[in-house]
From TrEMBL:
Pfam families associated with the record: LacI, Peripla_BP_3
Alphabetized InterPro entries for the sequence: HTH_LacI, LacI/GalR-like_sensor, Lambda_DNA-bd_dom_sf, Peripla_BP_I
Keyword Transcription regulation: yes
Top-rank taxon: Bacteria
CDD domains reported in the protein's UniProt record: HTH_LacI, PBP1_LacI_sugar_binding-like
Lineage: Bacteria, Bacillati, Actinomycetota, Actinomycetes, Micrococcales
Keywords associated with the record: DNA-binding, Transcription, Transcription regulation
SMART domains reported in the protein's UniProt record: HTH_LACI (SM00354)
Gene3D superfamilies: 3.40.50.2300, lambda repressor-like DNA-binding domains
Listed PROSITE patterns: HTH_LACI_1, HTH_LACI_2
Name of the featured protein: LacI family DNA-binding transcriptional regulator
Gene source species: Cellulosimicrobium composti
GO molecular function, one term: DNA-binding transcription factor activity
Region of interest: Disordered: 1-31, 348-373
Domain HTH lacI-type stretches: 38-92
Amino acid sequence: MWQASRRGGLSGRRPGDARRSGARVRREGRTTRGRSALRLVDVAERAGVSLATASRALSGSDGVSEVLAEHVREVAAEMGYIANPHARTLAGGTTSVAGLLVYEIGDPYFSEIASGVVRVATEHGWSVQISHTEREPSAEVTQIRLMRAHRVGAILVAGSGYVEPAMESDAARELEAFQESGGRVAVIGRHHLHSDAVLPDNEAAAASITAHVLALGHRRLAVAAGPERLTTVADRTAGVRSAVAAHGLDPDDLLVVHAPFTREGGRDATARILAERPETTAILALNDAMATGVLSLLRERGIVVPRDLSVTGFDDIQVAQDLAPALTTVRLPMSEMGAAAFEMALRPPSARPRRRRTDHELVVRDSTAPPRA
């Protein structure tokens, strides 16, 4: 018997010679000990259950008691069986993979949400595929379609919805079709999607931090806001306006400058505020990323915070406490929001979408103080 050599010619070495010379032989479909590769049916037989029950138990699907599922998992572990997550896909099913869609994975707000999703997913034996859209509705639809093509078992969408529902109508149709086919959907911060949702209490949180600034004695406020088309921005702005009105001031006199929800957006908004309202004594940024930009530009202009001008943020990302000065902000439970959304996705669908509102916490640090006399 002759074999092809590595150089493409022929070798006089016989198949058995490789083993005798100490060479390693790889045989597809067999274990390193030469046994046939373990199959799901082997696990089912050892556990004394049907093939379908074994599959549901190992994938975390409904229809199997926790006691029985744990028994099957123990048997699989003893046998050294590792489930192939793609096998169900090839059979036309779904995988124990969740798709998480965020606006910008580099944004600490979404990173912290993702950490909560991944933590709970790992606890339940799922993995998470993360995509981002840079706040473009068309990119959102494209990513949802790709996730469906990959036959993920659940899709989670994190990030603001749009003030105009038509902007997310295509995404809504894709998600509804996914749910009708048996997939699970949960969203974070989306008002208009017909899905289970975790909703941060943006309006109340914004009112809380605005009330803090007003209580310090500030009356000449300005807002560094994100894109006007986002519901998150609309809700947070509404909270600021309601607090201003509650203190007997005219909310229509409030200067609101819209810019990207980024550090650079915060710098741009601050430049406009200083140009249009130089008498401003406090700037309320509607997220912490913008607040870092506000602080950056004020530092360049020689404006001392909080002596000359107070600054607040929103979300309480990890870096907020390390800024100079440390940022007064309002804390949202971002990691917990991600965890709650994934837990919703694991539950069977309900007749009406579930809604869970989160709380908030005012965090007063060094960037706010009474206005100069």
